[in-house]
Amino acid sequence: MTISPSSPPQQQETKKHKHSSRRHKNKHTHVTINEKTPLVPKKQRAHSSEFNGASMSGAIMNLSTTIIGAGIMALPATMKVLGLGLGIIVIVLVGVLSEATVRILLKYSKQGGSDSYAGLMDDAFGDFGKKVLESCVVINNLGVLVIYMIILGDVVAGSSANGVHHPGLLEGWFGPHWWTGRVFVLLVTTIGVFVPLASLKRMDSLSVTSSLAVALAVVFLLILAGISIFKIINGSLPMPRLLPDITDINSVWNLFTAVPVLVTAYICHFNVHSIGNELENPALIEPIVQISLVLCTLVYIMTSFFGFVLFGDSTMGDILSNFDSDLGVPFSIELNDIVRVSYALHLMLVFPLVFYALRLNADGLFFGSSQIPLESDNKRFASISAGLLLVIYLGANFIPSAWDAFQFTGATAAVCIGFIFPASIAIRDVHGIATRRDKMLAVLMIGLAVFANVIAIYSDAYALFKKKPSPTA
Where do the segments described as Disordered lie (predicted)? Predict the structure, then answer.
């Protein structure tokens, strides 16, 4: 946009700010690998005969895997809170809002020449905005990976809630022993599985593992749908609630506890730029985002529908915990094991993608002044990886349930990454490209996000102090 000498002072100030942030951003271009670094560097692409840019299908799988993750496991529990009808409407609404926020990020990235979310925040708010974004990604991804570990612990070692014990796979196969307990199982999983995955510096075949991860999630969905349809046909399932069960004002506030879970389920913003940077044709990133969100929304709706239909008000915060008893169908034990094993493998395949972004943002946050690339500094690389894995392991052992972890990350960092920051970028509008509709939508998103999460935090705190059980326990 050209600024004439007669342009209003506000426009001149905007121009000045834009240039200032760019100078500020260029000041830090010597800083190592960060979240704007493609998962496979351009230099490596140029010298590799096997990788000349990611395909559209591979990018869809990568982004879909980032979105689906573990969020799918907690969504049936939101139907328990919201009811089936309202719950599906809210899932679609959050999906639409998520697409709008990613569109804002891509629009301003193209205008300002930013190839990362952090660079975009730097352009809009300077180094402070960049550091806040990195902090939120670290908090969110740590929380997500803790959720993965909690679910793996629930599946393999079992869990207990409100005096009810749900045996894990090992306990079901070999009986209760010290080596089938949660602490030991998670320790072995961390050292034997996650340490090798965390040591990956390049993910050239990420689209292959992402495709397998999505396929495993679909296996879970098909089994869930098959069991539900079988029991519906033989008339052994009651009619599910379509609306929430509201008895008093506190039950109204309790509806908002589902919001952080839904927000967390759609967070993929921290990987959009990295996936786009790898594309053979970067212009395809917008349709890739749209296709991925539609695909994941359909999977979410079907999982929520069949999960709540099958288990009703007995649906656990982590629905995998429901697959530990007789389902009332032929081959129930075998189906239980297939469901839990397939999704445990799914989480293991998703882990390196989320951990990669976590490590890069942690490095940018704590070692941003280092001039040595992270991949070239083995000591720093190993120290950051080990420290993050230790935090994830401890979190999985001390946080009571996946629902509690979803509540924390969803009500804090996830809502900032997914809604508040993109909306703030549109309101800041350093390039003067936001329409009135864009700004109105941005203000609406910030208002809804803040209101819903304040109420959710209040409801969780109220239940805690009153020593009432979790609505999904």
Answer: 1-44
